[in-house]
Design goal:
Elements lengths: L3 H6 L14 H12 L10 E6 L2 H11 L2 H5 L2 E8 L1 H10 L10 H24 L3 E5 L1 H4 L2 H8 L5 E10 L13 H4 L10 H17 L10 H11 L4 H7 L7
Antiparallel strand pairs: 1-2, 2-4, 3-4
């Protein structure tokens, strides 16, 4: 098992996997790590769908175009989940407030699911496995993916995670310097110089990395993604899951 330092600092997204399957012991360890996730109020406002059925993985691949979904051993789908607590309230005859319809309710569920995914990533990587988070599972076709996974009302996908035996170990992508990420005792708004330097570093990396190269920078590339994401209709997707965010 890798050290904590190597597990965290050596992590890269893996998009190519061997045909070898995860062992039951590996899956159990990952699931126990998920179960031990710290959550808001210990509310555990998340659930995870563990997809290892090849046909289902291929159906999810057909929707997303993300080949690592069909080639990985397990595809974990991390969901915001208020169905469970609603069922608990019903069983005990307690009136359930519509907390899930608030922005804070969404944030709590999304953060819980994200923390659970990070626990899964850390556990899997410590075993020498490869992982790749896939946010596109949230936005590409929420209705179709929810139906494929049989999600009840008030459960919605936050992110997917491919896990498998790695066939590759990609180059490390440059990350923002600590001067842009860590602010001491208050936010430092003087970021432009370091941002432009980082932008150039990413552009150089993309032009020289192993495998396919591009001329993408960081700032322009991210703004292009934001423009595309403006077309996502997640409010409607939430309404189809029985969640109506009103405050």
């Amino acid at each position: 098992m890798k050290s904590v330092k190597d597990t965290i600092l050596d992590r890269v997204s893996c998009r190519r996997y061997e045909r070898e399957q995860l062992t039951p012991e590996q899956v159990e360890f990952i699931c126990q790590a998920i179960a031990n996730t710290p959550t808001s109020y210990n509310g555990q406002q998340f659930s995870v769908i563990d997809v290892d059925d090849q046909k289902l993985k291929e159906q999810l691949y057909a929707l997303t175009g993300q080949k690592q979904i069909k080639t990985c051993s397990h595809f974990f789908v991390f969901c915001l989940d208020y169905y469970k607590i609603c069922e608990g309230a019903k069983a005990k005859g307690i009136e359930m407030p519509a907390f899930y319809n608030t922005l804070d309710g969404y944030t709590v569920g999304a953060v819980d699911a994200a923390l659970a995914m990070m626990n899964a990533i850390t556990a899997a990587e410590s075993l020498g496995l490869g992982t790749c988070p896939i946010g596109y599972a949230r936005t590409v076709n929420p209705k179709a993916i929810s139906e494929l996974l049989g999600l009840p009302d008030r459960v919605i996908v936050i992110c997917g995670l491919a896990v498998g035996v790695p066939r590759e170990h990609n180059d490390h992508k440059p990350k923002q310097p600590l001067s842009l990420l860590i602010h001491r005792n208050g936010y430092n708004p003087d970021v432009a110089t370091d941002l432009l330097g980082y932008d150039l570093e990413v552009q150089r990396y993309n032009a020289t990395r192993s495998g396919a190269t591009t001329d993408n920078d960081w700032i322009g590339h991210m703004i292009g993604y934001y423009r595309e994401a403006m077309e996502y209709n997640l409010i409607e997707a939430f309404r189809l899951r029985g969640i109506y965010i009103y405050k």
